[in-house]
Write a structure and sequence with these properties.
The protein is built from eleven helices and eight strands. By secondary structure, it is mainly alpha-helical.
Length: about 325
């Protein structure tokens, strides 16, 4: 009986493999004879169905239906950026997706980095030949998380973007805002989704990725006891000193709502475009009673609730800074 079952299993497996091979031959091209390279334009907000039809119409893939099935079952495929892509014709769906995800095949791409700001992004757009800057203005944008200042700071999602020639600044920014909407962000305890975004923007600049959740906890712990955040990153944002390692005592006295040495609570807007990881940390802070943290040398960030211990570490940081460890 076991022998008969084994034979039946082998037959079923063989039939399945034959059916699978037939399915691929029917709905997918092979990769052994790709056609010429062509340019494919993927508009902002295009769905998997629309991308599939575009590829099939231009002879890149054999079946848009098969592409949609692949697109929905493959999370990586959903990272295809809008813009003009160079792809081969007559290739398999999986290869087409790989080519569409290849940054080197995207025309005039720009990379919005984690921790970048609106001014950084505007500079990138101004330098891009596909962006029309002749009628530059930022208005009438659909902002994912509404706020009283109508600020889009912090909501331009870090990713690779490419735009068709003649794209307006507003359209480019709206595409980045639309991408941000794919990220899950909501209230945390008594803090609104916008407050959580502010926290994420701070920890993006303040900490290493491995410590994001601990930095988030320090911020929430300070807010809970009405203690000034005293974060260098917010002052650097206000004073245009981003990227500096040290901050002078004079800088901490500047008159700005972003100066968390002088003002209690969170800054009025985010100070950077945070990553999905930073946002996740702001929503899921590590459990702890820390009130202080400091990076004494690259890769060595320490947390404590004891101010005297923090002062000792601060002396160590200053020595390491003077000895060039942060260069």
């Amino acid at each position: 009986m076991r022998s008969l079952n084994s034979k039946l299993t082998t037959v079923v497996l063989f039939i399945s493999l034959v059916a699978l091979a037939f399915f691929h031959q029917t709905y997918d091209f092979r990769n052994d004879n790709p056609g010429q390279e062509i340019l494919i334009s993927i508009p902002d907000g295009a769905t998997g169905v629309e991308i599939g039809k575009n590829l099939e119409t231009n002879g890149v893939i054999k079946s848009s239906k098969y592409f949609v099935d692949f697109y929905l079952s493959n999370e990586r495929a959903r990272g295809i950026a809008p813009g003009v892509h160079k792809v081969n014709t007559h290739i398999s769906t999986s290869l087409a997706v790989s080519q569409l995800l290849d940054q080197k095949r995207i025309s005039n791409s720009i990379t919005v980095k984690e921790g970048s700001t609106l001014s950084d992004v505007l500079k990138l757009l101004k330098e891009n030949s596909h962006i029309d800057y002749s009628k530059f203005e930022i208005k009438n944008l659909r902002i994912p998380i509404a706020n009283r200042l109508n600020s889009i700071e912090g909501q331009l999602f870090p990713a690779i973007y490419s735009f068709e020639s003649g794209t307006s600044v507003n359209s480019a920014l709206q595409g980045m805002l639309n991408k941000f909407k794919e990220i899950s962000i909501h209230e945390y305890m008594k803090y609104s989704a916008y407050d959580v975004l502010k926290v994420a923007s701070l920890i993006q600049v303040e900490g290493d990725a491995a410590d994001y959740d601990k930095v988030a906890r320090v911020i929430y712990n300070r807010l809970a006891i009405n203690m000034p955040l005293q974060l260098n990153s917010s002052v650097q944002y206000a004073a245009g000193l981003r990227g500096r390692i040290a901050l002078s005592n004079e800088a901490t006295k500047i008159n700005s709502p972003y100066n968390t040495y002088k003002n209690l609570g969170l800054p009025p807007t985010p100070i950077s475009n945070p990553s999905a990881l930073a946002i996740s940390a702001a929503l899921n802070p590590k459990v702890g009673d820390w009130l202080y943290f400091i990076t004494v040398k690259p890769g060595d960030t320490r947390f404590t609730k004891d101010f005297k211990e923090f002062q000792t570490w601060n002396t160590l940081y200053n020595n390491n800074l003077a000895n060039g460890l942060f260069r």
